[in-house]
Amino acid sequence: MPAGVCLGLSILTKGLAGAVFVGIFAGCIAVPAAPKPGGGGRQPSTIARLATALTIAGGVAFCLAAPWYVAMERAHPGYLHYYFIERHLRGYLTSTQRHAGRVWWYYVPIVLGGALPWTGYVASALRHIRRRGERPLISIAWAWFGLGLLFLSIGESKLVTYVLPIFPALALAIAEEIVTFGQSRMGLAIQIVTLVVLPIATVIALPFMLDAPIGLTWIVPMAAMGGVLLIARRALRATTIETAIGAGALMALVSFIAVLTASLPRAAAYLTSRDLAAALNAGPHLPSRVAILDERIGSIVFYLSPALRAEATPDRIQITSLSSAIEHVRVDSPDAILAVRDGQLRRFTRLFPNPPQPSVRAGTFSVFRADHLRDALGANRH
Hints:
382 residues, globular, 3 domains, 5 strands, mainly alpha, 5% strand
């Protein structure tokens, strides 16, 4: 029952991809666990028990997910064909989707990067696959990983998030490698360097990727670097695998906490529109038009109050380009607003001889009223 509920929820959130990976995993369990000849026939075979469990889980999943899909089809006729045929089947087999046409090895660097800081153990784990006869359970993890990667690589549509379901298999394989064969020099070296560099690298990336100022966010990463190096000494001198694993886990914890407390909050401020939505929520109604310069509107709609969200029709709130923004400013109602993220502000204000002052600041957004911008454009003509 719990497995069926989880499968049903995965189908609700990710469509048939969840069912496909469950099928791959079940096949990987069934093949090596098939009953041997002469093993007796009184007890049901593992394959039969697995088939029974999958049938029950599939039934529970169907009962859980079907009502929502039926409701969507009734509300939007043709939805099931679009979602399961166009998005799933044709998306996998043809290049009709926006994220199609990528190279077959697209996921290889993603897997290697996603395995950090333990990527250094992948090579040695692969070398030890030939000894899988001594470790039958780890063969299941490698088959799960390999078949999942093959399935994704064959598909025409490829996205970074598609590969996430195979990382548990890779994690199991790497963990088994470390426990069975110990820490390799290369693996430990890559692990230490990654965890030392990661916190400060994420801070340095902020102005390049998000136009976000570093400010004092470097302090925590620098402290984390020192902490990781101190723990690394213990890892290098460890005489037991338990001590080495404990030190490695502590290094990862320190490094990841630094990223979570220093870099990610600053990045989140430049990726969310929560503050802008809060400024709009302070009023009883949306302005006649809300335009956001080169920003997706999903975040602001999410954070709007229910009353304002009901007013957020496509003609009331929308993304705009720089040229389109100026065109609309000339004809918009006085209360219409244009929200400009800090990273776009300099490019925007260059259009005016005297940079217009925002009516309000909302987090990393400057909010301009249309009538004020229109006045600034009029001054520009004179």
